[in-house]
Write a structure and sequence with these properties.
The complex is a heterodimer of chains A (486) and B (331). Chain A is α/β, with parallel strands linked by helices. Helices cover 37% and strands 25% of the residues of chain A. In chain B, 72% of the residues lie in helices and 1% in strands. Classes of the chains: A alpha/beta (486), B mainly alpha (331). Chains A and B meet through loops of A and helix 9 and helix 10 of B.
């Protein structure tokens, strides 16, 4: 009989995220996927798996013991690691310290440095990680950080590891390597709960996949052979249809003149990168080894100058900042000011372009008049606290709809979004397109972004290895079995 | 990945060593410059005195270093120095056994450390504000213990205390220096070879990650403030032994000396990095500038300006090193 790690029965929570009679059962050695059609409630689910906190109905068994119920919630923490949203690694310390010293259960006061390093080296070797135990965590890339977090969870003896939206952090090359590592660990008895919103990522690695929607698990797909068809039925309804309609709208708009051109640009990991983008075009730059995005943004914003090659038009950093806007990954936390009003946030990029914008009320009134109907009553919000993710994303994209830069660079625009919101963000991007703005999407994966792109540039280790127009996108899918397993 | 490096390469790439080497080179350079500029500076007596002058800064620098590594700051150091000096001085001048007086001063100092630790780690006050409050509090206590007067001479019964902390000379080095060295060795061991030391770095580097990894952040931060209070008390007692009387303004602006010694020695004010070895050249540079500039006839104002500039430059270097992105080289 299989050992049960986690069982949640009829969980009901109406506060703090809400769960609606959710049931879930995970066994030892299993990789259990949760495909999020809607993210609402997922935070609460993770919280209740980690902490035995009060709920309004149901019970939670961890390691076959009742740990939480309506009658008694101890508030204690279960032996669970959550990887993805928050790191447990200490950047300034070495791998050896992170794996063996900074953890619960390390009781020795004086650290036996050599023994710890030998132990670390042996663990790293066992799992094929070619790093020195003395390497500091701050020198590691995303892939190695995630591997280290997973190994740490195994070493500290946590019984369940939750992988939460981690795949956005990995490149198309790294993802299969990471999956083979967790499969190996699962075969050795580790248990994983893999939460993500792309079935293409979950399907090849998960034993079972639960569909999370409406604050509960709607369905659990168990038979591998039929998972694909079952998911695609749901998926098409939620996402593909949306993207297909967006695509149709976009095709009606004619292209304009060239607004940005890179000619044989080299800088850091970027080698002789050449491409151009025209007004109203949606260009996808797919960095499949995840090495150049940060450097490319610095170059585009004029904060760095290329070691060789040219970027046209030649502009100063200040002017470039006005003509090229960057919407970073997770823009809600990186670009908005929660204490300022919705309207102030909305006008921020525009104020950089229009002199004396903040001094003259008529400008703000004019924006308010023009966009009140489109955005809705939320435009009057005094601050951003309490607004929904959808409203915040509307704000992020409308800032550039109003300020009309020549190019908007969207970095991993669908990261950490559920299926519903991905469709909505796609729609916002199409509005930029209708506005005549060139959209350059920088991504390390192809899901969804490929549906709305006009052109694709494929980059590997800083070099262009392929350029495809929309008509050739099927070729790309065939060449990327990891991303498009169908 | 596991490329072989020479022992020198390994040593230099170890955490924080480069800053220490830079500070040490700065110390040697200043030493040579002042030796050339002033014959009195290079006299044997002055060299001995110079090291004795550096020792108190080094002691408080060690304490401040512990706090800075956790990403906090202790502004109460100078006032605790004054409070320890006045408390022990008052008791000794009233005939209380010197060692009992030291013990009482130590208990009072540790109490301030405890309050700092609780306010910062438990109550959640910003360390700057919390220790600013206890700075004033401790200075008030320093004034209160002897009714707002400096103490009288602490008496001949305290001569053993004075010799032990200040006047004894062993192998040509004054006891104050030996005390600083012993303290440094003990606390270096605590910081670099023990679990507590790793927890201190972890809390300074990423508090949330440290908590998630089971580190008791309250306990760790409390320890650092207690260490800082202990060092301040020791420094206060050294000042008492040196002057033979308690003065109410003892330790004034010492918190600045402590921060300067740390920052010059590569301990980051942003937390998580730096090693205790940095405090030695850090305090050395501070002391050598004070001493050397005096011998070359620089006025006090100029001395302060130069030292201030050096501190700002050191902090700027630290911030640039922390936040500045190295331009990656094309392969």
């Amino acid at each position: 009989m299989r050992e049960e790690i986690l069982r949640m029965e009829h969980i009901l929570c109406t506060e703090g995220g809400a769960l609606n009679y959710l049931s879930l059962q995970i066994f030892r050695g299993e990789i259990y996927g949760i495909l999020c059609l809607e993210n609402q409630g997922i935070d609460k689910l993770v919280e209740l798996i980690c902490w035995n906190r009060p709920m309004e109905n149901g019970q939670v068994f961890f390691g076959e013991k009742l740990v939480n119920s309506v009658q008694e919630s101890s508030g204690t923490r279960n032996k669970v690691t959550v990887i993805g949203r928050q790191s447990r690694l200490i950047d300034g310390l070495t791998l050896a310290d992170n794996l063996f010293v900074i953890r619960e259960g390390f009781r020795r006061h004086v650290i036996p440095d050599r023994a710890v390093q030998t132990e670390t080296a042996s663990v790293l070797k066992q799992y094929g990680v070619e790093l020195s135990p003395k390497t500091r965590v701050k020198d590691l890339g995303n892939y190695h950080r995630l591997v280290l977090e997973v190994l740490k969870s195994v070493i500290v003896g946590d019984r369940l590891t939750i992988l939460w939206e981690i795949s956005d952090l990995l490149s198309a090359e790294e993802l299969p390597r990471f999956h083979s590592l967790i499969r190996r660990l699962a075969d050795q008895g580790s248990t994983f709960l893999y939460i993500y919103s792309h079935h293409e990522v979950l399907r090849p690695v998960c034993d079972r996949i639960a569909i999370f929607k409406g604050n509960t698990i709607e369905k659990v797909l168990t038979v591998q052979s039929t998972i694909r068809e079952q998911i695609q039925t749901v998926y098409a309804r939620y996402c593909y249809e949306k993207f297909i309609s967006i695509r149709k709208d976009m095709e009606e708009k004619p292209r304009g003149s060239e607004v940005l051109c890179l000619q044989k640009v080299s800088f850091g990991n970027i080698h002789e990168l050449s491409f151009s983008i025209t007004k109203g075009e949606n260009l996808l730059l797919f960095d499949q080894s995840n090495t150049i995005l940060d450097e490319l943004i610095e170059l585009l914003l004029g904060r760095e100058t290329p070691e060789s090659g040219n970027i046209y038009p030649v502009l100063s950093a200040k002017t470039r900042g006005k003509t090229i806007a960057v919407i970073q990954r997770n823009p809600v936390s990186s670009t908005l000011f929660p204490e300022l009003s919705y309207l102030e946030n909305l006008c921020f990029p525009l104020a950089e372009k229009v002199p004396y914008f903040w001094q003259k009320v008529k400008f703000r009134r004019s924006v308010l008049r023009e966009y009140r109907e489109e955005i809705g009553p939320v435009i009057n919000a005094g601050n951003l606290y309490g607004l929904s993710t959808k409203e915040l994303y509307t704000l992020v994209y409308y800032r550039y709809l109003i300020s009309k830069p020549d190019v908007v660079v969207c970095v991993q625009p669908f990261a950490e979004l559920d299926m519903y919101l991905r469709g909505y963000v796609g729609e916002l991007m199409s509005r930029l397109h209708r506005n005549g703005t060139a959209v350059l999407v920088l991504n390390t994966e192809l899901y969804d972004t490929l549906y709305i792109a006009d052109r694709l540039i494929q980059v590997e280790h800083g070099r262009i290895i392929g350029e495809y127009t929309r008509e050739c996108f099927d070729e790309v899918k065939l060449a990327q079995p990891v991303i498009f397993p169908d | 990945m596991n490329e072989k490096k020479s022992w020198l390469g390994r040593a230099l790439s170890a955490r924080g060593v480069q800053s220490v080497v830079t500070a040490a080179l700065g110390f040697v350079l200043l030493f040579i410059i002042f030796c050339i500029l002033s014959p009195q500076f290079r006299s044997g007596n002055n060299i001995q005195n110079l090291f004795r002058q550096i020792a108190p800064t080094m002691i408080i620098g060690i304490g401040q270093g512990f706090v800075l590594i956790t990403g906090n700051i202790d502004l109460s150091i100078g006032s605790v120095v004054g409070m320890a000096c006045m408390t022990a001085g008052t008791l000794m001048s009233n005939g209380v056994n010197p060692w009992v007086s030291c013990l009482i001063a130590l208990v009072m100092s540790l109490a301030i450390g405890l309050v700092n630790g609780v306010l910062v780690a438990k109550v959640g006050l910003p360390s700057f504000i919390a220790t600013l409050g206890t700075m004033t509090l401790a200075r008030g206590l320093a004034q209160l213990v002897n009714n707002n007067h400096n103490t009288n001479f602490i008496g001949n019964t305290a001569q053993g205390f004075r010799d032990m902390l200040y006047y004894n000379n062993f192998l040509g080095i004054y006891s104050t220096v030996w005390i600083a060295v012993i303290l440094w060795v003990i606390l270096w061991f605590l910081l670099s070879k023990t679990r507590t030391g790793r927890h201190i770095y972890a809390v300074g580097s990423n508090l949330d990650a440290a908590k998630l990894s089971g580190v008791n952040a309250f306990h760790t931060i409390l320890i650092t403030y207690m260490v800082s209070a202990f060092c301040s008390c020791l420094c206060g007692l050294v000042l008492l032994a040196s002057a033979g009387m308690g003065t109410m303004d003892a330790g004034t602006t010492y918190e600045m000396y402590a921060v300067a010694a740390c920052v010059i020695g590569g301990i980051s004010t942003l937390g998580g990095t730096g090693i205790l070895a940095g405090v030695i050249p850090g305090a050395g540079i501070w002391g050598i500038l004070q001493n050397g500039l005096q011998f070359v006839g620089a006025p006090v104002a100029l001395r302060n300006i130069i030292i201030g500039i050096i501190v700002i430059a050191a902090v700027m270097l630290d911030v640039v090193a922390r936040t500045g992105r190295k331009k990656p080289k094309a392969k």
